[in-house]
Amino acid sequence: xxxxxAIGSDHRGLDLKGAIMxxxxxxxMECHDCGCYSTDSVDYPxxxxxxxxxxxxxxxxFGILICGTGIGMSIAANKVKKVRAALCCxxxxxxxxxxxxxxxxxxxxxxxxxxxxxxVIVNVFLTTPFEGGRHLTRVKKINSIE
Length: 146
Fold this sequence. Notes:
47% of the residues lie in helices and 16% in strands.
């Protein structure tokens, strides 16, 4: 089965988004570009909502969001039901976000993450399985928060 990725960025993350889309395409993943499409200033919550809805409604398997720091995207995406967005600055956090939190959206900061590191983080995030077990109870509690 082909992995479906919803991806979006604000104007500050546009270049990194393009590089990640190319990388995912090389691995045969299906990328859904939720914006933005130029360097004109945009409101990142709109992009986070679009990606979050695709992931929360299971139209896509995972999401990737990029803004200057990744913080705003993470905060906004976590407002969407069934989304567990994690800002990951390195592979350790990407691995733990998947293993322990079953994170389904990866957030990156374009100002501090170069293309090579982003590719490694994306790879770890998308290939690390959720451990389940004791973590499943906690994820269910996260999902029940309204």
